[in-house]
Amino acid sequence: MSVSRLEHITRIGVEQMGDLADSLDDADMLRLENLDTNILPPPSAIAITKDATDDDDANSYLPFFGLDSLRQAASMLVGRQSGQDYDWKTECVISAGGLSGIFNTLLALLEPDDEVLLTDPTYVGLINRVRLAGGVPRFLPMVPSADGWRPDLDALRKIDPGPIRAALLMSPSMPSGAVFSANEWQAIIDFCQIADCWLINDTAMERILFDGRQVLHPASFPNMRSKVITVGSASKEYRMIGWRVGWIVGPAEIVADVARVSITNVVCQTGIAMSAVTAAINGTDDGIAASVAELQARRDVLLGELADFIVIPPHGGWSLLVDVSPLGLDGPAASGLLLKKGKVATTPMINWGGAQCTNFVRLVFSNESIERLRGVGERFRRALT
Protein backbone atom coordinates (compact mmCIF):
# COMPACT_ATOMS: atom_id res chain seq x y z
CA MET A 1 0.00 0.00 0.00
CA SER A 2 1.32 3.45 -0.93
CA VAL A 3 1.99 6.07 1.71
CA SER A 4 -0.80 8.60 2.26
CA ARG A 5 1.04 11.48 0.56
CA LEU A 6 0.76 9.59 -2.74
CA GLU A 7 -2.97 8.94 -2.42
CA HIS A 8 -3.96 11.76 -4.78
CA ILE A 9 -0.86 11.79 -7.00
CA THR A 10 -2.12 10.83 -10.45
CA ARG A 11 -0.48 9.68 -13.64
CA ILE A 12 0.47 12.38 -16.11
CA GLY A 13 -0.56 10.38 -19.18
CA VAL A 14 2.41 11.47 -21.26
CA GLU A 15 4.60 8.73 -19.79
CA GLN A 16 2.17 6.03 -20.92
CA MET A 17 1.57 7.44 -24.40
CA GLY A 18 5.25 8.21 -24.89
CA ASP A 19 6.30 4.67 -23.98
CA LEU A 20 3.60 3.21 -26.21
CA ALA A 21 4.57 5.38 -29.19
CA ASP A 22 8.23 4.48 -28.64
CA SER A 23 7.42 0.77 -28.59
CA LEU A 24 5.73 0.98 -32.01
CA ASP A 25 8.99 2.25 -33.56
CA ASP A 26 7.15 3.71 -36.57
CA ALA A 27 8.81 6.60 -38.40
CA ASP A 28 5.42 7.63 -39.81
CA MET A 29 4.05 8.22 -36.30
CA LEU A 30 3.42 11.88 -35.54
CA ARG A 31 4.81 12.50 -32.06
CA LEU A 32 2.46 15.14 -30.67
CA GLU A 33 2.25 13.78 -27.12
CA ASN A 34 5.40 15.06 -25.43
CA LEU A 35 6.97 18.49 -24.81
CA ASP A 36 10.20 17.79 -26.63
CA THR A 37 11.41 20.10 -29.37
CA ASN A 38 13.37 19.80 -32.59
CA ILE A 39 14.24 23.53 -32.51
CA LEU A 40 17.87 23.69 -31.46
CA PRO A 41 19.26 25.53 -28.40
CA PRO A 42 21.45 28.59 -28.86
CA PRO A 43 24.73 27.56 -30.57
CA SER A 44 26.82 29.32 -27.92
CA ALA A 45 25.10 27.29 -25.19
CA ILE A 46 25.93 24.03 -26.93
CA ALA A 47 29.58 25.02 -27.37
CA ILE A 48 29.95 26.10 -23.76
CA THR A 49 28.36 22.87 -22.53
CA LYS A 50 30.92 20.84 -24.46
CA ASP A 51 33.74 22.88 -22.98
CA ALA A 52 32.30 22.42 -19.49
CA THR A 53 32.82 18.66 -19.61
CA ASP A 54 36.56 19.37 -19.41
CA ASP A 55 36.19 22.00 -16.67
CA ASP A 56 36.81 20.59 -13.20
CA ASP A 57 35.01 23.54 -11.60
CA ALA A 58 31.83 22.45 -13.38
CA ASN A 59 32.09 19.01 -11.74
CA SER A 60 31.23 20.30 -8.27
CA TYR A 61 28.47 20.73 -5.74
CA LEU A 62 29.57 24.33 -5.33
CA PRO A 63 28.24 26.94 -5.24
CA PHE A 64 25.15 25.39 -3.69
CA PHE A 65 22.74 28.11 -4.81
CA GLY A 66 24.08 28.41 -8.36
CA LEU A 67 26.86 30.21 -10.17
CA ASP A 68 27.05 33.90 -9.34
CA SER A 69 27.01 34.73 -13.04
CA LEU A 70 23.81 32.75 -13.61
CA ARG A 71 22.08 34.24 -10.57
CA GLN A 72 22.98 37.68 -11.87
CA ALA A 73 21.69 36.86 -15.36
CA ALA A 74 18.43 35.34 -14.07
CA SER A 75 17.79 38.28 -11.74
CA MET A 76 18.36 40.75 -14.55
CA LEU A 77 16.09 38.77 -16.89
CA VAL A 78 13.22 38.81 -14.40
CA GLY A 79 13.96 42.45 -13.71
CA ARG A 80 13.67 43.34 -17.39
CA GLN A 81 10.37 41.50 -17.75
CA SER A 82 8.82 42.91 -14.57
CA GLY A 83 10.31 46.39 -14.45
CA GLN A 84 11.65 45.65 -10.95
CA ASP A 85 15.15 45.52 -9.50
CA TYR A 86 16.29 42.31 -7.78
CA ASP A 87 19.39 41.69 -5.68
CA TRP A 88 20.88 38.49 -7.09
CA LYS A 89 22.69 37.72 -3.84
CA THR A 90 19.53 37.60 -1.70
CA GLU A 91 16.63 37.36 -4.15
CA CYS A 92 17.66 34.60 -6.56
CA VAL A 93 18.51 30.93 -6.26
CA ILE A 94 19.16 28.44 -9.07
CA SER A 95 17.27 25.14 -9.22
CA ALA A 96 17.65 21.84 -11.05
CA GLY A 97 14.99 22.75 -13.59
CA GLY A 98 11.88 24.89 -13.35
CA LEU A 99 9.63 22.22 -11.86
CA SER A 100 12.16 21.53 -9.11
CA GLY A 101 12.09 25.26 -8.39
CA ILE A 102 8.29 25.25 -8.22
CA PHE A 103 8.22 22.25 -5.89
CA ASN A 104 10.85 23.81 -3.62
CA THR A 105 8.85 27.03 -3.57
CA LEU A 106 5.65 25.19 -2.64
CA LEU A 107 7.48 23.35 0.15
CA ALA A 108 8.72 26.71 1.45
CA LEU A 109 5.22 28.26 1.40
CA LEU A 110 2.58 25.70 2.29
CA GLU A 111 1.25 24.40 5.56
CA PRO A 112 -0.83 21.20 5.32
CA ASP A 113 -4.21 21.83 3.62
CA ASP A 114 -3.34 25.32 2.40
CA GLU A 115 -5.12 25.94 -0.90
CA VAL A 116 -3.35 26.84 -4.14
CA LEU A 117 -5.17 28.52 -7.01
CA LEU A 118 -4.53 26.90 -10.41
CA THR A 119 -6.23 27.17 -13.76
CA ASP A 120 -8.45 24.37 -15.10
CA PRO A 121 -6.93 22.95 -17.26
CA THR A 122 -3.34 23.07 -16.12
CA TYR A 123 -0.32 20.77 -16.23
CA VAL A 124 -1.00 17.79 -14.00
CA GLY A 125 2.62 17.89 -12.84
CA LEU A 126 1.87 21.21 -11.16
CA ILE A 127 -1.29 19.80 -9.57
CA ASN A 128 0.65 16.80 -8.26
CA ARG A 129 3.39 18.99 -6.81
CA VAL A 130 0.82 21.06 -4.94
CA ARG A 131 -0.58 17.87 -3.43
CA LEU A 132 2.84 16.39 -2.68
CA ALA A 133 3.73 19.59 -0.81
CA GLY A 134 0.62 19.16 1.35
CA GLY A 135 -1.54 21.69 -0.47
CA VAL A 136 -5.04 21.48 -1.91
CA PRO A 137 -5.64 22.54 -5.54
CA ARG A 138 -8.39 25.14 -6.02
CA PHE A 139 -9.29 25.49 -9.67
CA LEU A 140 -10.09 28.64 -11.62
CA PRO A 141 -12.09 27.46 -14.64
CA MET A 142 -10.86 28.46 -18.08
CA VAL A 143 -13.57 28.89 -20.71
CA PRO A 144 -12.82 27.56 -24.21
CA SER A 145 -14.06 29.37 -27.30
CA ALA A 146 -13.23 29.92 -30.96
CA ASP A 147 -11.09 32.86 -29.80
CA GLY A 148 -9.05 30.85 -27.30
CA TRP A 149 -9.18 30.21 -23.57
CA ARG A 150 -10.31 32.87 -21.09
CA PRO A 151 -10.39 32.70 -17.28
CA ASP A 152 -13.89 32.68 -15.79
CA LEU A 153 -13.65 35.87 -13.77
CA ASP A 154 -17.17 35.43 -12.37
CA ALA A 155 -16.07 32.07 -10.96
CA LEU A 156 -12.92 33.70 -9.56
CA ARG A 157 -15.01 36.21 -7.61
CA LYS A 158 -16.93 33.32 -6.00
CA ILE A 159 -13.80 31.54 -4.71
CA ASP A 160 -13.28 31.95 -0.96
CA PRO A 161 -9.95 33.78 -0.65
CA GLY A 162 -9.48 32.79 2.99
CA PRO A 163 -7.81 29.38 2.54
CA ILE A 164 -5.73 30.42 -0.48
CA ARG A 165 -2.04 30.53 0.39
CA ALA A 166 -0.72 30.90 -3.16
CA ALA A 167 -1.73 31.18 -6.80
CA LEU A 168 0.40 29.09 -9.18
CA LEU A 169 -0.13 30.40 -12.69
CA MET A 170 1.37 30.28 -16.20
CA SER A 171 0.86 32.68 -19.09
CA PRO A 172 1.09 31.20 -21.65
CA SER A 173 -0.44 28.28 -19.85
CA MET A 174 0.32 24.66 -20.52
CA PRO A 175 -1.47 22.72 -22.01
CA SER A 176 -4.00 25.27 -23.27
CA GLY A 177 -1.77 28.04 -24.61
CA ALA A 178 -3.95 30.57 -22.78
CA VAL A 179 -2.43 34.05 -22.36
CA PHE A 180 -3.88 36.41 -19.76
CA SER A 181 -4.82 39.91 -20.89
CA ALA A 182 -3.99 42.96 -18.75
CA ASN A 183 -7.56 43.03 -17.44
CA GLU A 184 -7.44 39.34 -16.55
CA TRP A 185 -4.11 39.72 -14.78
CA GLN A 186 -5.58 42.66 -12.86
CA ALA A 187 -8.56 40.59 -11.74
CA ILE A 188 -6.25 37.80 -10.58
CA ILE A 189 -4.01 40.28 -8.79
CA ASP A 190 -7.03 41.88 -7.10
CA PHE A 191 -8.00 38.42 -5.85
CA CYS A 192 -4.47 37.72 -4.59
CA GLN A 193 -4.40 41.01 -2.74
CA ILE A 194 -7.73 40.23 -1.06
CA ALA A 195 -6.44 36.76 -0.20
CA ASP A 196 -3.08 38.21 0.92
CA CYS A 197 -1.47 35.27 -0.83
CA TRP A 198 1.67 34.64 -2.84
CA LEU A 199 1.57 34.58 -6.63
CA ILE A 200 3.97 32.01 -8.08
CA ASN A 201 4.55 33.03 -11.69
CA ASP A 202 5.69 30.05 -13.76
CA THR A 203 7.48 31.78 -16.65
CA ALA A 204 8.65 28.65 -18.50
CA MET A 205 6.99 29.93 -21.69
CA GLU A 206 6.67 33.63 -20.88
CA ARG A 207 8.04 34.92 -24.21
CA ILE A 208 6.53 32.22 -26.44
CA LEU A 209 3.70 34.51 -27.50
CA PHE A 210 1.83 34.54 -30.81
CA ASP A 211 0.20 37.21 -32.97
CA GLY A 212 2.28 40.08 -31.58
CA ARG A 213 1.31 39.66 -27.93
CA GLN A 214 3.64 41.17 -25.35
CA VAL A 215 4.85 39.89 -21.98
CA LEU A 216 2.81 40.97 -18.97
CA HIS A 217 4.58 40.15 -15.72
CA PRO A 218 2.45 40.27 -12.55
CA ALA A 219 5.25 41.87 -10.52
CA SER A 220 4.94 44.91 -12.79
CA PHE A 221 1.50 45.68 -11.35
CA PRO A 222 1.28 48.14 -8.42
CA ASN A 223 2.14 46.73 -4.97
CA MET A 224 2.90 43.22 -6.32
CA ARG A 225 6.69 43.04 -6.17
CA SER A 226 6.52 41.86 -2.57
CA LYS A 227 4.01 39.08 -3.41
CA VAL A 228 5.28 37.63 -6.71
CA ILE A 229 7.74 34.74 -6.88
CA THR A 230 9.02 34.14 -10.41
CA VAL A 231 10.13 30.64 -11.35
CA GLY A 232 11.88 30.43 -14.72
CA SER A 233 13.50 27.72 -16.77
CA ALA A 234 15.86 27.23 -19.69
CA SER A 235 13.84 24.27 -21.00
CA LYS A 236 11.24 25.93 -23.24
CA GLU A 237 12.29 29.44 -24.26
CA TYR A 238 15.93 28.42 -24.80
CA ARG A 239 15.02 24.85 -25.90
CA MET A 240 17.45 23.43 -23.30
CA ILE A 241 15.33 20.64 -21.83
CA GLY A 242 18.16 18.28 -20.93
CA TRP A 243 20.23 20.93 -19.16
CA ARG A 244 17.83 20.97 -16.15
CA VAL A 245 18.40 24.53 -15.00
CA GLY A 246 15.83 26.90 -13.53
CA TRP A 247 15.70 29.91 -11.23
CA ILE A 248 13.56 31.38 -8.46
CA VAL A 249 13.49 35.17 -8.11
CA GLY A 250 11.47 37.04 -5.51
CA PRO A 251 11.50 38.79 -2.13
CA ALA A 252 14.56 37.97 -0.04
CA GLU A 253 12.72 36.44 2.93
CA ILE A 254 10.93 33.79 0.88
CA VAL A 255 13.90 33.11 -1.40
CA ALA A 256 15.94 32.36 1.72
CA ASP A 257 13.36 29.73 2.68
CA VAL A 258 13.35 28.31 -0.85
CA ALA A 259 17.13 28.06 -0.63
CA ARG A 260 16.84 26.10 2.63
CA VAL A 261 14.47 23.66 0.93
CA SER A 262 16.64 23.49 -2.17
CA ILE A 263 19.81 22.48 -0.35
CA THR A 264 17.83 19.83 1.51
CA ASN A 265 16.00 18.50 -1.52
CA VAL A 266 18.02 18.37 -4.78
CA VAL A 267 21.15 19.91 -3.16
CA CYS A 268 22.55 21.51 -6.31
CA GLN A 269 22.07 22.14 -10.00
CA THR A 270 23.62 20.57 -13.11
CA GLY A 271 27.17 21.87 -12.94
CA ILE A 272 28.10 21.48 -16.60
CA ALA A 273 24.90 23.29 -17.66
CA MET A 274 24.92 26.54 -15.71
CA SER A 275 27.50 28.48 -17.73
CA ALA A 276 25.67 27.50 -20.92
CA VAL A 277 22.37 28.82 -19.57
CA THR A 278 24.10 32.02 -18.48
CA ALA A 279 25.32 32.47 -22.05
CA ALA A 280 21.83 31.77 -23.41
CA ILE A 281 20.27 34.44 -21.18
CA ASN A 282 22.98 37.04 -21.80
CA GLY A 283 23.68 36.28 -25.44
CA THR A 284 22.41 37.88 -28.62
CA ASP A 285 21.81 34.51 -30.29
CA ASP A 286 19.11 33.11 -27.99
CA GLY A 287 16.92 32.23 -30.97
CA ILE A 288 13.69 32.97 -29.12
CA ALA A 289 12.15 35.20 -31.79
CA ALA A 290 12.93 32.73 -34.56
CA SER A 291 11.59 29.79 -32.56
CA VAL A 292 8.38 31.68 -31.75
CA ALA A 293 7.87 32.43 -35.44
CA GLU A 294 8.33 28.76 -36.29
CA LEU A 295 5.99 27.62 -33.53
CA GLN A 296 3.32 30.10 -34.62
CA ALA A 297 3.60 28.81 -38.18
CA ARG A 298 3.17 25.24 -36.94
CA ARG A 299 0.16 26.29 -34.87
CA ASP A 300 -1.39 27.88 -37.94
CA VAL A 301 -0.89 24.73 -39.98
CA LEU A 302 -2.63 22.67 -37.29
CA LEU A 303 -5.52 25.12 -37.04
CA GLY A 304 -6.00 24.89 -40.80
CA GLU A 305 -5.64 21.12 -40.95
CA LEU A 306 -8.09 20.58 -38.09
CA ALA A 307 -10.71 23.13 -39.19
CA ASP A 308 -13.33 20.34 -39.21
CA PHE A 309 -12.79 19.76 -35.48
CA ILE A 310 -13.21 21.91 -32.38
CA VAL A 311 -9.72 23.23 -31.75
CA ILE A 312 -9.20 25.91 -29.11
CA PRO A 313 -6.57 28.28 -30.57
CA PRO A 314 -3.52 28.79 -28.37
CA HIS A 315 -2.10 32.28 -28.03
CA GLY A 316 1.33 31.02 -27.00
CA GLY A 317 3.25 27.99 -25.82
CA TRP A 318 3.97 24.62 -27.39
CA SER A 319 0.58 22.90 -27.45
CA LEU A 320 -3.15 23.12 -28.13
CA LEU A 321 -6.29 21.24 -27.09
CA VAL A 322 -8.92 19.58 -29.26
CA ASP A 323 -12.44 19.03 -27.90
CA VAL A 324 -13.50 15.52 -28.97
CA SER A 325 -16.75 15.39 -27.00
CA PRO A 326 -18.97 16.39 -29.99
CA LEU A 327 -17.73 13.20 -31.67
CA GLY A 328 -19.18 11.13 -28.84
CA LEU A 329 -15.70 10.43 -27.49
CA ASP A 330 -13.69 11.28 -24.41
CA GLY A 331 -10.00 12.06 -24.39
CA PRO A 332 -8.69 8.53 -23.71
CA ALA A 333 -10.91 6.97 -26.40
CA ALA A 334 -9.93 9.61 -28.97
CA SER A 335 -6.25 9.30 -28.10
CA GLY A 336 -6.42 5.53 -28.57
CA LEU A 337 -8.12 5.82 -31.96
CA LEU A 338 -5.69 8.48 -33.15
CA LEU A 339 -2.75 6.24 -32.28
CA LYS A 340 -4.24 3.08 -33.79
CA LYS A 341 -5.94 4.43 -36.92
CA GLY A 342 -4.20 7.74 -37.56
CA LYS A 343 -0.65 7.14 -36.36
CA VAL A 344 -0.86 10.27 -34.22
CA ALA A 345 0.37 10.16 -30.60
CA THR A 346 -1.62 12.57 -28.40
CA THR A 347 -2.21 12.90 -24.66
CA PRO A 348 -5.68 12.74 -23.08
CA MET A 349 -6.24 15.44 -20.50
CA ILE A 350 -7.52 13.18 -17.70
CA ASN A 351 -6.32 14.55 -14.32
CA TRP A 352 -5.21 17.88 -15.84
CA GLY A 353 -7.92 19.81 -13.96
CA GLY A 354 -11.66 19.39 -13.46
CA ALA A 355 -14.36 17.43 -15.25
CA GLN A 356 -14.13 19.40 -18.50
CA CYS A 357 -10.64 18.02 -19.13
CA THR A 358 -12.13 14.63 -19.98
CA ASN A 359 -13.27 16.16 -23.28
CA PHE A 360 -9.83 17.09 -24.60
CA VAL A 361 -6.69 15.68 -26.15
CA ARG A 362 -3.46 17.67 -26.28
CA LEU A 363 -1.35 18.15 -29.40
CA VAL A 364 2.23 19.35 -28.98
CA PHE A 365 3.62 21.13 -32.04
CA SER A 366 7.17 21.80 -30.84
CA ASN A 367 8.73 18.56 -32.09
CA GLU A 368 7.30 18.02 -35.58
CA SER A 369 8.11 20.05 -38.69
CA ILE A 370 5.52 21.85 -40.78
CA GLU A 371 6.10 19.33 -43.54
CA ARG A 372 5.19 16.44 -41.28
CA LEU A 373 2.21 18.28 -39.76
CA ARG A 374 0.61 18.70 -43.16
CA GLY A 375 -1.94 15.95 -43.61
CA VAL A 376 -2.72 15.59 -39.90
CA GLY A 377 -6.32 16.60 -40.67
CA GLU A 378 -6.78 13.53 -42.86
CA ARG A 379 -5.29 11.36 -40.11
CA PHE A 380 -7.83 12.81 -37.65
CA ARG A 381 -10.73 12.21 -40.04
CA ARG A 382 -9.58 8.64 -40.67
CA ALA A 383 -9.32 7.93 -36.95
CA LEU A 384 -12.27 9.81 -35.48
CA THR A 385 -15.02 10.12 -38.09
Describe the secondary-structure layout.
Blueprint: H1 14-24, E1 30-31, H2 43-52, H3 68-82, H4 88-91, E2 92-95, H5 98-109, E3 115-120, H6 124-132, E4 136-145, E5 148-151, H7 153-158, E6 164-170, H8 182-195, E7 198-202, E8 228-233, E9 246-249, H9 252-265, H10 271-282, H11 288-305, E10 310-312, E11 319-323, H12 331-342, E12 344-345, E13 347-348, E14 360-364, H13 370-373, H14 376-384
Parallel strand pairs: 1-12, 3-4, 3-6, 6-7, 7-8
Antiparallel strand pairs: 2-9, 4-5, 8-9, 10-11, 11-14, 13-14
Helix pairs in contact: 2-10, 3-10, 5-6, 5-9, 12-14
Describe this protein's structure:
This protein is α/β, with parallel strands linked by helices and 385 residues long. The chain has two domains: 4-41 and 287-384, Aspartate Aminotransferase, domain 1 (Alpha-Beta Complex); 43-282, 3-Layer(aba) Sandwich (Aspartate Aminotransferase, domain 2), CATH 3.40.640.10. Helices cover 39% and strands 17% of the residues. The chain has 14 helices and 14 strands. The strands form three sheets. An eight-stranded mixed beta sheet has the order 2-9-8-7-6-3-4-5, sandwiched between helices. Helix 2 (43-52) packs antiparallel against helix 10, helix 5 packs across helix 9 (252-265) and helix 12 crosses helix 14 (376-384).
